[in-house]
Amino acid sequence: MKLIQLNETVTASNDRDAEALRLRMREAGTLLVNVMSSPGSGKTTLLSRIIRDLKQLKIGVMEADIESDVDARRIEALGAASIQVHTSGMCHMDAGMTASAWEAMEAEDLELIFLENVGNLICPAEYDTGAAKNLMLLSVPEGDDKPLKYPLMFQKSDALIITKTDALPYFDFDLEKCRERVLKLNPGIRIFPVSAKTGEGMEPLEQWLLAQVQAL
Amino acid sequence: MKLIQLNETVTASNDRDAEALRLRMREAGTLLVNVMSSPGSGKTTLLSRIIRDLKQLKIGVMEADIESDVDARRIEALGAASIQVHTSGMCHMDAGMTASAWEAMEAEDLELIFLENVGNLICPAEYDTGAAKNLMLLSVPEGDDKPLKYPLMFQKSDALIITKTDALPYFDFDLEKCRERVLKLNPGIRIFPVSAKTGEGMEPLEQWLLAQVQAL
Asked: What does pTM read for this prediction?
C-alpha cells in the first residue's frame, strides 16, 4: 500500500492551484470527487459499496487521514487503486496536497478517483481541493439539525448523501425536515438517502456518479 | 437567551491565557469542563440529562457553534444558565474566546460550567480553552476505530464518554477493543459508556463530575 505524508501547501493561491489541478485531471480523463463528512458517517463503507457495484469503471481512492491506514487497507482489499495520505495533523486537504497525492498514485488511467477527505464537517469545506465534484455525507445518527449548524459544507456540495438510513427506526431523524433545511441553503444540491449496508437507495447515486464520469 | 459573536483571539499566548483563566475560575469556585466531540455525537442530549440529574449543583453551559442557537435553546428550556457563542466560522474555541464568553454570562455563582465546544474531532484538541477538565464524547455509530484516526483528542482528554450505547445492538462497535485502543493512547483516561436516553451508565459519570467539583 502506498502512503504519503504531506504538509500544508505553502501558497496563498489555493484557488488557482485547484483550478489548475481540475484542468489537468480533466485532460487525463479522470473525475475527481471530493468526499467530506464528520468522522464515522460511513465514507469508507459507502465507497467500498460503490467500488463493488461499479465494476465497469476504473476507480481509485485517496484516503486522507491524520493517522492510521485502516481505511486504505479496506479499499485495497477490494482491489481498487488506493493511496493513504497522512496530513501531518492538518484537518483538511488543500489543492497542492491533492495534486501531490494524485502524482504519487501514478495511476493516470483511472476514470474516477474519490478523495476521502479528513473526517471534519467544517475545515474541508473551506478549501477547494481541485475536485470536479464535491459530495458530503450526513449519517442518520448525527441528526437532522446539522444543516443549521454547519451550513458552509452543505452550500459547497454538489450532492448530499444521507447515510445509514437502515438506522432510521432507532433515531429521531426527520428526512423531510432535513431535506427542507438543506435545499434552503443550496437549492441545486442533489440528495441521495442510502444504506450502504442494505443497498437501499444506492442505484440512483451510482447512476448519478456514472453520468458525471461520462459528462467529464 | 444571550448570544455572543467572537473572533479568534489575536494572541500567540493561548497557553498563558488558558492558565490565567483556569486560575480565575478556580478563585470564583467554578469548575469549567470542556466537552469535545464530532458533530452529532450527543453532547447536548448528554448535558441536558446531567443538568436534570444533578439538581444539587448550579450548572451553566456555553454553547459554541459556527451558527444557529438550537443547542442553547434546549439548555435554556431546562432552566440552566446558558450562552450561545458564535465562533465566526472558527472550528474551535481558544482561551480568549472562552474568557469572553464566561464574562458575558455574568454568572459567577455557578459551580459547574460546561463548554460545549464546536463539533469537530480535530481542531478543538489543539487549543487549551482554560478548562479544568477536558471531556470527549465518542458515539457508538461513529465506530470503534476513531482512536486510531484522531489520537490527539483521546490523549488530551481526562475522560471519554462513549455515548448512545443503547444503539450497540445495531452497530458493529466493539467496546473492549475501543477501550484498549484508548488506554494505549492515554493510560490515565477515565472511560464512561452511557446512554443519555435510557440513563444507563450515567451515575458513575455524574459521581465523577461531582467529585471534580468538590475537588476544585
From this structure: 0.91
